[in-house]
Amino acid sequence: MNTRPLRAVFLEPKPLNTHIYSRYALPRLGTVLLATILRDRGWEAQVFVEEVADISFDQVLRADLVGISTTTSTAPRAYALSREIRESGIPVVLGGSHVTFLPEEGLEHADMVIRGEGEDPILALARHFEEGDDLGNVPGLSWRAGDHTFHNSLPGKPVDLDVLPAPDLSLIHGYIRGGSVANRFIPIQTTRGCPYDCDFCSVTVMFGRNLRKRSPENIIKELVAYRDLSTSFFFCDDNFTADRNHAREICSLIIESGLDITWTTQVRLEVARDRNLVDLMRRAGCRTVCIGFESVNQKALDECGKSQSLDEMFSAAGTFRRAGIDIHGMFILGFDSDQPRDLNATLRFAKRAPVATAQFLILTPLPGTRLLRRLTEEDRIFLSNWSLYDGHHVVFTPRNLNPRKLQKKQLRSHWRFYSWPRSLANLVKLKFKRTAVYIYARRVNAHWKRQNRFYLKALKLLSRNGFLAVSADLKSRFPDIRQAMEKARISSRA
């Protein structure tokens, strides 16, 4: 009698295009957590994160179940992997934000789709493979039987984060090398959900507006467990300080535990009003915060539901600088109220405010967001190739901006923020790590332009003509481009 454990392989595909974080192979925790849950249940489980190491198809083809994570920009790669694996007779389940909102699309490429959070569904799905339990008992599962498609109800309540095991990063092939992690940062989750509800964000739809928190004691245990692999951590919450008391408890315990670590996290600028907490974060090891400033155009901020002002942005930047915490400023270009002068003003703010590093991304209508619904209703989306939905490509027509000019502004914003004079200024100040980041950012920008020459050529012709007799190369790269050109009605002004 064969009593071998069942095998599960989880895959995190890489996006097809270079992006701003290409150098920093920081795995998302979803696939690792699901693999850990099945491993603790007695399965053989492993994870391949393509940005960390190549997928071993020898291992994949020995699996009893393959799970593939999807974001919108990685969906085309996820679908290609799913089709190839499914043709080998191995069941494939897709999960993640993209297929949560587009399960019917996911089922065109895979056997099953898990919508929403995956922890409870993966246990129920395990029982199906172990005992033949009915798929109808798997919460959040979408699946097909014959000509019928079924969408099971989502779990009755959100998962309690404190009952989950700590994700075992050793399950990721190639992530731990020689006793340390391949990327110096280790991801740690302290909360899920977000009480805010920005127009362009799908987090609240995916995880809810009620903030769920892990106990500070559990978080400290995880930090201690991984301290020998790295002393640099990334608290990967959407907003680490959404509950300031919870953040305060974590920082206090880090200090009391004597943990000599440094960490980065994402916050909203409102936390700068609590200077005691900002100082506590610094003493607990916080060295960089990522802040979504988005824009200096107040109309754009109001448009997307971001309740902040330009004065608050300058004030917050100054508070973090005085505390000794660097800021990674995150900006979005292409809101409907944006004019060219607003994009220039946003760049000037980033250069003048004490922002150490910055990203300038293009507003992107992701599935699940109000933004996508609105732009779809207004028939303003001209590219539906999901691989381009990564914040680096214009895929819709803004009200007051030519798409090609918006794309050029995005590229130039990076060139000018990470200019050679600013790079040399950092070098003169002996800020070697920051100088290296500046040089890296320029290289990414140059590589992106080479990689996307067909896309940039299409935008140029679109702007001139409003339609395009597409070359064979462009057709092969963007099969929906002709329809896009005819649909967009972009202004002929170059």
Helix/strand layout:
Blueprint: E1 7-12, H1 29-41, E2 44-49, H2 57-60, E3 65-70, H3 75-86, E4 92-96, H4 97-101, H5 103-107, E5 112-114, H6 119-131, E6 141-145, E7 148-151, E8 176-177, E9 180-181, E10 185-188, E11 191-192, H7 203-207, E12 212-213, H8 216-226, E13 232-235, H9 244-256, E14 262-267, H10 275-283, E15 286-294, H11 298-304, H12 310-323, E16 326-333, H13 340-352, E17 357-362, H14 370-377, H15 403-417, H16 420-428, H17 432-451, H18 453-465, H19 472-477, H20 481-488
Parallel strand pairs: 1-2, 1-3, 3-4, 4-5, 10-13, 13-14, 14-15, 15-16, 16-17
Antiparallel strand pairs: 5-6, 6-7, 8-9, 11-12
Helix pairs in contact: 1-6, 8-9, 9-10, 13-15, 16-17
Question: What can you tell me about this protein's structure?
Answer:
With about 500 residues, the protein is α/β, with parallel strands linked by helices. Among the domains are: about 5-145, Cobalamin-binding domain (Rossmann fold); about 185-365, TIM Barrel, CATH 3.20.20. The chain is built from 20 helices and 17 strands. It has helices spanning about 30-40, 55-60, 75-85, 95-100, 105, 120-130, 205, 215-225, 245-255, 275-285, 300-305, 310-325, 340-350, 370-375, 405-415, 420-430, 430-450, 455-465, 470-475, 480-490, and strands at about 5-10, 45-50, 65-70, 90-95, 110-115, 140-145, 150, 175, 180, 185-190, 190, 210-215, 230-235, 260-265, 285-295, 325-335, 355-360. It has a seven-stranded mixed β-sheet, with helices on both faces. Strand 8 and strand 9 (about 180) form a beta hairpin. Helix 1 runs parallel beside helix 6 (about 120-130) and helix 13 (about 340-350) packs parallel to helix 15. The protein is globular.
